[in-house]
Design a protein that fits this description.
The protein is of the alpha+beta class. It has 5 helices and 7 strands; from the N terminus they run αβββαβαααβββ.
């Protein structure tokens, strides 16, 4: 039994170490604010100025900075004609607030059910109260502020314009302080 347990642990460790890159790797970026968190087969996670940027394709330094600037509501041109090497917004930003009322109600209902079904002995002990608090603490569903748009930029690696759909989660309703940025390649929609 011990051998089986140790074998499973070793296999899990080997699999989890396979595709990640150290967070200190710069991958040739001249900007020291860019950190590569993970580069896998189809997952690329960067950090720039404290904001996590994740997606399905590798980005250049310029693309990371442009994506960050667009999320910060910096000026990025709307595409009229093919502008060459710059990044432009092809589909303008749309901002939306999600109140998540249905998710809040479901989480609160589930929390109430857990508390009701907990044994009285657990409710009265310090450790039991702590465990119940941890089990029901996840139920805090907050309002979400989201911005989304499509950008286009020239990829010297692919020798063509590439398109990215961008989804940004913001901290508040003024849509100027991003919490995270996600992107995915959408070039196939434009060819």
């Amino acid at each position: 039994m011990k051998k089986l347990f140790i074998t499973v642990i070793i296999i899990m460790l080997c699999l989890s170490l396979g595709t990640t890159v150290s967070a200190n790797t710069k991958e040739g970026f001249s900007n020291s604010n860019i950190k590569v968190i993970e580069e896998g087969f189809s997952t690329f996670i960067y950090e720039y100025n404290g904001i996590e940027i994740s997606g399905d394709t590798k980005l250049s330094e310029e693309q990371i900075i442009n994506m960050y600037n667009a999320a910060m509501n910096e000026k990025v041109g709307i595409m009229g004609v093919d502008p060459g090497n710059t990044q432009v917004i092809v589909i303008p930003p749309m901002y939306k607030t999600y109140k998540n009322t249905g998710a809040k109600a479901a989480a609160e209902l589930l929390s109430a059910y857990i508390i009701k079904k907990a044994p009285e002995k657990a409710k009265k002990s310090t450790f039991g109260a702590w465990v119940l608090n941890k089990l029901t603490g996840w139920a805090k569903v907050e309002t979400t502020y989201v911005g989304m748009w499509t950008t286009s930029s020239y990829s010297s690696y692919e020798q063509k314009r590439v398109y990215h759909n961008t989804l940004v989660h913001y901290k508040n309703s003024n849509y100027t302080t991003p919490k995270s940025i996600q992107y995915w390649e959408a070039t196939h929609w434009w060819e």
